[in-house]
Amino acid sequence: MRAVAFSECGDPEVLQVAQVDGPHPGPGHVRIAVRAASVNPFDVRVLSGSMSAPLKVSFPHVTGHDAAGVIDEVGVAEVTAGDAVLGLSVTGAAAEFTVLDDFVRRPAALSWEQASGLANIAETSARVFRELGDIEPGQILLVNGGSRRGRRDADGLQREPRAACACAVARKLILLPD
Fold first, then answer.
1. 75 and 11 in a common domain
2. How many Cα neighbours within 13 Å face the side chain of 167?
């Protein structure tokens, strides 16, 4: 199958379209025909080599971590071939086919491109909520967005009556470097 891969770490110029063996899912995984894949900061760090200490990269390495597509091989009982999903790739998302180990059904209201960018964001959010600990209904959580989009999302959360939390003063504060 065709995939975007690199044989050495570096700048984007080391990326190339390559022929690689197609992946197959093991237990708990699914293989999808990729409809869209996104690029996120993690992918850039892997490409540059700055993740080489915590992450062993073998070459050629298919790039990409987030993808959306249609299941064509199943290693779990909860889904079937033909289901539209988005998730985190274990074999590289920038390919004709990829294997996902963490996935959900794609909301029909989202385009393939929109769906392909959600998995990393969702995983990051889940990690933050695990760090915060148990957040109970009625507690207040600060959602601080540095962009207009982030502020609109936080405003929407605040107006949403079904939201489990409001945006105001946080129970815990996590400071991130600039």
1. yes
2. 14
Give yes or no: residues 110 and 37 share one domain. yes
In tens, the pLDDT along 141-164 reads 666 654 444 444 444 444 443 333
Cβ-contact 116, 100 below 8 angstroms: no
Burial code of 37-74, b = ≥16 C-beta within 10 A, e = fewer? bbbbebbeebbeeebeeeeeeeebbbbbbbbbbebebb
The residue count for the chain = 178
Closest by CA to 87, choosing from 147, 76, 5, is 76
Residues 27-39: tens digit of each pLDDT: 999 999 999 999 9
Same domain assignment for residues 56 and 143: no
Residue-number span of the structural domain to which 176 is assigned? 134-178
Q: What is the pTM assigned to this prediction?
A: 0.75
Structure-block tokens of residue 88: 């985190």
User: Looking at the structure, do residues 26 and 103 belong to the same domain, yes or no?
Assistant: yes
